[in-house]
Amino acid sequence: MKRTMGFLFASLFLASFGTAALADHHGHLPKSGTISWVTGWIFEGPELAPQKDGYVIGHAQAIGATFNVNGSGPLHEGRATCVVTFIATPDGATNKGNCFFGDQDGDRIFTSFTGDAAANKGTNTIVGGTGKYAGITGSGPWECDASAPADNGGFNCRQSLTYELP
Question: What's the pTM?
């Protein structure tokens, strides 16, 4: 009985205070580094507004799933959403918008992005995070494959963020 009570007390102690070491919500995430992942997206839209002289403005939403290139770790098997606005001119096309990229546990990194819509690449800038990503800062490149008609709006993007945590 004494042994059972000792085991029970030790278990309760660890359950109550053992998680305090993880209370900073960073878990096993280093204070700085680079996260590299691929997102598989499905594009909803776009809503286009053609203008005079070859200009077009529009917006769309992409919903997807994230996969860390290492097969585990930050942003592996999480959810993602981006909302994008764009303008096409006779000289080119640009886009910008906001995204979140998440983990299986629901922690998220929020970004603002800009890009060259014709080249399908640009830069993500971190604007914040939740859970283990709270207080995160940094930025990194993104590059996407163009969607073919047979892809039904699906495409992949390769992304990385060089980050720092407080």
Answer: 0.80
